[in-house]
Specification:
Layout lengths: L2 E4 L6 E2 L1 H15 L3 H11 L3 H10 L1 H9 L6 H12 L7 H11 L1 H21 L1 H6 L2 E2 L1 H10 L4 E5 L4 H10 L6 E7 L7 H12 L6 E5 L2 H8 L4 E5 L6 H9 L3 E3 L1 H9 L1
Parallel strand pairs: 1-4, 1-6, 4-5, 6-7, 7-8
Antiparallel strand pairs: 2-3
Bound molecules: magnesium ion.
Magnesium ion binds next to loops.
Length: 264
């Protein structure tokens, strides 16, 4: 292994509360949603130190988390919020996809457009709250710090580069990543594009790269390149995704098992 490439959200950063917050604001820009409105009013009235706790404790957030693995892009967060508002039970991919189609293409396009705008606005207006909602997975940070001399560290993410750079600095690990080692959403829709970019930049073969993501479908795409793929059990997935990963020959790894698995 010459390069250890990591997805950002759900692998390095426990950022789902931030996604939930931004998603609530995004949806309310163009759709009435009494449930989302009540949640946002409640969160906004909460002291910064307790907002994260409050979000995580809400049953709607827990439902949002369960739906996250069924989506791929920002608009999927909107789909999840609509499912929560309408009390739709979306237990598998087929039901989820059908519900998404019923919402229509305009819904997805509008949500996507406003989501990034809302994130920028949130980060600009309330940087301290924004940071509170994206905390690192502490165990992973320790491994990266301890092992940064043994392997080239890289990030392959669908998040914007500015947010990633800010959070890596906050987590105290920005210096562990060489110039060009953070490949962000500009690389393309598929993580295959990210991995191709990293192989070129580090001048390594695909089988010299290990890629850790918390989404089984991203790993299934990149595995075809010959990259060694691992599903991060500590991220946003559950038993349903573990089964899919294993069926496709992708290892499912816990944070406790990661360091000995990678470095012996
Ligand atoms: Mg992820």
């Amino acid at each position: 292994m010459k390069v250890l490439a990591l997805d950002f959200d759900g692998v390095i950063s426990d950022s789902a509360p931030e996604c939930f917050w931004v998603s609530l604001r995004t949806l309310l820009r163009f759709r009435p949603s009494p449930t989302c409105e009540a949640l946002l009013v409640d969160f906004e009235a909460t002291d910064r130190l307790f907002i994260r706790e409050k979000i995580v404790a809400s049953p709607q957030y827990q439902k949002f988390l369960k739906l996250m693995p069924l989506g791929n892009r920002a608009e999927d967060f909107g789909v999840a919020l609509q499912a929560i508002e309408l009390r739709a039970e979306l237990d598998d991919q087929a039901t989820y996809d059908a519900f998404f189609r019923e919402l229509g293409a305009n819904f997805a396009a509008e949500f996507h457009r406003y989501f990034y705008w809302e994130r920028e606005a949130f980060r600009g207006a309330q940087p301290e709250v924004w940071e509170t909602l994206s905390v690192p997975f502490a165990g992973l940070i320790e491994i990266l710090k301890a092992r940064s001399g043994d392997v080239n560290l890289a990030v392959a993410t669908a998040k914007d580069g500015h947010s990633v750079a800010t959070l890596l600095a906050n987590y105290g690990i920005a210096s562990l990543f060489a110039d060009g080692a953070v490949v962000d959403k500009e690389a393309g829709r598929s993580k295959r594009a990210h991995l191709r970019t990293l192989a070129e930049r580090f001048d390594v073969a695909f089988d010299e790269i290990t890629f850790i993501d918390d989404k089984a479908n991203h790993l299934m795409e990149t595995q075809q390149l010959g990259v060694r793929c691992l599903l991060a059990q500590w991220g946003y997935n559950g038993e349903r995704e573990h089964v899919v990963a294993r069926e496709n020959g992708i290892g499912v790894i816990s944070l406790d098992a990661l360091e000995p698995y990678l470095f012996g």
